[in-house]
Amino acid sequence: MAEAHQAVAFQFTVSPDGIDLQLCHEALRQIYLSGLHSWKKRFIRFKNGVMTGVYPGSPGGFMVVVVSYMSYNQYRRLDPSMGLIAKLDKRHKHYLSRIVGGVLVGTGLWVTIIMIMRNVLKSLLSWHGWMHARHGSVSWSTRLWLILVKVFSGRKPMLYSFQNSLPRLPVPTIKDTCRRYLESVRPLMEDERYERMEGLTKDFEKNLGPRLQWYLKLKSWWASNYVSDWWEEYIYLRGRGPIMVNSNYYAMDFLYVFPTSIQAARAGNAIHAIMLYRRKLDRAQVQPLMLLHTIPMCSAQYECMFNSSRVPGVETDVLQHVNDSKHIAVYHKGRFFKVWMFYDGRLLLPREIEQQMERILADSSEPLPGEEKLAALTAGDRTPWAKARETYFGRGKNKNSLDAIEKAAFFVTLDDTEQRFEEDNPVKSLDSYAKSLLHGKCYDRWFDKSFNLIVFKNGTMGLNAEHSWADAPIIGHLWEHVLSMDPLKLGYTEEGHCCGEPHPNLPGPQRLSWDVPAECQEVIQSSLTVARNLADDVDSHIFPFIDFGKGLIKKCRTSPDAFIQIALQLAHYRDKKKFCLTYEASMTRLFREGRTETVRSCTLETCAFVRAMIGDETCLSLLKLAAEKHQNMYRLAMTGEGIDRHLFCLYVVSKYLGEDSPFLKEVLSDPWRLSTSQTPLQQVELFDLVRHPEYVSSGGGFGPVADDGYGVSYIIVGENLINFHISSKHSSPETDSHRFGANIRQAMLDILDLFQLEKKTK
């Protein structure tokens, strides 16, 4: 770039008269400001670490306890040191003893109070009876419990304040897990197969199970969470197939609102909003998510949101995270750029970031050989990428450029296509939009980064997120912040540009340089072929369900999630004429380092309701039983009494011990032919859902889990809208995402008709 000379701090020339130094004062000033910024961040992190470590204590509480104790000693003329300090200083023995002894004993008393409050809070949070209360009614015992939780939770918590107070995830008993497993598969198995499975289960419960359980109990006492590290390693990082489509997921922009059609301007506001969120995260100023505004949830997953990348390995990948990063990486038309986010010791303003994006868009240079499709390595199989990384990117300019991407705060793609919801062509436009966010061209997203911000040519945008470091609600929290700030708080000028003025002296983006040999280009092409075959097979369908929303479902006195899950079962039976093993994601963040658990939504009660609907029988009572059963299973999953993570960990232990379990092998080999997830709206206070429900994300989605199955994600927007994201594979003769979408819509309408709300209103 033309501004590259500004990166030189000083120049010197050697002549017969000596050495002539030419210092660049501006560069030295920037070095000083950069160092000052780094030291400020270190101090803030140190301070936050101290505040989190002593929470629910505080410096104010420390002063109150110590001063009160010292005043009491002074009044009673006590020597807390019991004469020990008086022996060290005989001249001021009484005065010194009271001061030093009072401070030491007061500090000990303060620490004791903190530990008592923390352990009482942990005990309180281990009780989950509040979840079983009927919706809309709260018992006196629950009210008393909520008051006690508030009392022992302290004041003004920061993001990580509750980490040491959260209980550990309990290990269910072998007996309960085996019983619930058999109950979950009963509607899916013929009598003969079920009797065989029952025999395998009983044998496991009596013989191998207790031995594996002993090791798991030992781990649960020692580790913060007995599931999460193994889940991250074996489900995500050890997978050798492509993470594009199979693991990564996406989040969409507004559906009906288009704040600006200027690509650089939309990127400017979005990037600035993301960096503001990162600053709040660094300072632990993001409020911890609290159920009922009282019950804290684990915040551990936020730690790797920024400055992180998944690094490929031959056998297993690793998560790489750096404490700080002052730049982002940007891709446009086959070129990679490094863009600094700070100048003059401050974060760039939206218009200044837009200015940088404009420079990249205006750059007409051609990609270097092998550069354009380089990111296809992150879209293909992991082992070839790991070997290519070690062989071709371990030194020189390739290593420096790769470091600039992997250590960037996050990755940005200035996409050269246009995506948007079109009212005159809603189906095709939304399907294209979803596929672009999920995989793009297979070489224009860096799928290893914690997340990619994708800004399209017409100003629409979205996210593509890597899954191993965190689950969707974490990235959803960030995305809600960005969308709430973009059009309403940051805003745009009448011409569609970011507010403010360009910076006259801002150094431009740095073009990354590569030297990709022909052998590496062959590996890139091979990875691209694998990725394209995978991407082309994705059958994606997104449709807004506008007939009714949670407002009407609540009038039926039914849980909206249970209503939708039962509708999905009815739709699937109509679609395939059979039931299947169904996965619904539930969180376990009520526990320390908790991630997810599975709700097996295909139950005996749900199947009975679906059969009754197909046979035109009286169904309302069966529906209520099915909804009640689903809610109870969801509660069990959230409170650590689910079965699938327990079975997974038992299987891992069996492999470590070299034991072969026919029961566990069969359990874990059953495919999830219907994989579902709800995208929660977590920060409702950021949006006016009554007057402006359109100013909310239209949700996100993921690829199908089974080759012959469906992936379904849905988001409940306000009172009158539910957006569905459906995926499957074209190669399967059993699936069709558009057909399944039509079945979902009809199932929702048919179930609502059972309640005859129109007649009740009349």
TrEMBL record:
Keywords from the named record: Acyltransferase, Fatty acid metabolism, Lipid metabolism, Membrane, Mitochondrion, Transferase, Transmembrane, Transmembrane helix, Transport
Active site, UniProt feature: 467
GO BP annotations listed: carnitine metabolic process; fatty acid beta-oxidation
Membrane topology category: Multi-pass membrane protein
Keyword Membrane on entry: yes
Major enzyme class: transferase
Domain of life: Eukaryota
InterPro entries the record matches: Carn_acyl_trans (IPR000542), CAT-like_dom_sf (IPR023213), Cho/carn_acyl_trans (IPR039551), Cho/carn_acyl_trans_2 (IPR042231), CPT_N (IPR032476)
A Pfam short name: CPT_N
Compartmental location: Mitochondrion outer membrane
TM regions (residue ranges): 53-72, 95-117
Catalyses which reaction(s): (R)-carnitine + hexadecanoyl-CoA = O-hexadecanoyl-(R)-carnitine + CoA
Documented EC number(s): 2.3.1.21
Any single Gene Ontology cellular-component annotation: mitochondrial outer membrane
Record has Cell membrane as a keyword: no
Pathway: Lipid metabolism; fatty acid beta-oxidation
Choline/carnitine acyltransferase domain location: 169-746
Residue ranges of every copy of the Carnitine O-palmitoyltransferase N-terminal domain listed in the record: 1-47
The protein's name: carnitine O-palmitoyltransferase
Provenance organism: Cyclopterus lumpus
Species lineage: Eukaryota, Metazoa, Chordata, Craniata, Vertebrata
